[in-house]
UniProtKB/TrEMBL annotation:
InterPro entries: InsJ-like_HTH (IPR055247). This is Transposase. Residues 8-49 form the Insertion element IS150 protein InsJ-like helix-turn-helix domain.
Length: 163
């Protein structure tokens, strides 16, 4: 639309109508011509950088975490930390934080399945858990039951009167 408007009405009118600068119009026009007047060429491209920073963790630390989680099924990052600190001091490796241990576990996918059933017998069913039946509504009142009344006691001429 902008390029067609520019061809018909000129640069100044296009800048005022769409609120775009003059260099932007000519840049879009150049891209449009270079790609054989294809509308798809004007769709904004991704601005993601070509080279991203990749984490550089020591391979020995990753291997230690893998080994310890294999031996002690899915040991948590808080319990791995003191053991890893001892290992790092022995091998003169800089220590890492608890959160970094969690990131390594997640990124390297260091999860091991717990042992489940070895044999599945299709005839064997687990026992059904019986739940107590719930009362949805309170029962209807069939009789009035007992009535509680407060009374006032007055003495008139030596007689006790209940009001």
């Amino acid at each position: 639309k902008v390029i067609e408007f520019h061809a018909q009405y000129g640069t100044k009118a296009t800048c005022d109508a769409f609120g775009i600068s003059k260099p932007t119009i000519y840049r879009w026009k150049g891209i449009y011509k270079d790609h054989g007047r294809d509308n798809i060429s004007l769709i904004p491209k991704s601005r993601r950088p070509n080279t991203l920073r990749s984490p550089s963790w020591d391979i020995r630390i990753i291997q230690f975490i893998k080994d310890i989680r294999k031996d002690h099924r899915n040991l948590g990052k808080y319990k791995i930390k003191p053991l890893l600190d001892i290992y790092c001091n022995d091998n003169s490796i800089p220590q890492i934080s608890v959160s970094l241990i969690g990131k390594i576990i997640k990124r390297e996918n260091i999860y091991y399945q717990r042992r489940g059933r070895y044999y599945h017998n299709p005839n064997h069913k687990r026992p059904q858990i019986s739940y107590k039946s719930r009362v949805k509504r309170s029962p209807r009142v069939s009789s009035q039951g007992h009535i509680e009344i407060d009374t006032i006691v007055r003495f008139v001429n030596g007689l006790k009167l209940y009001i």
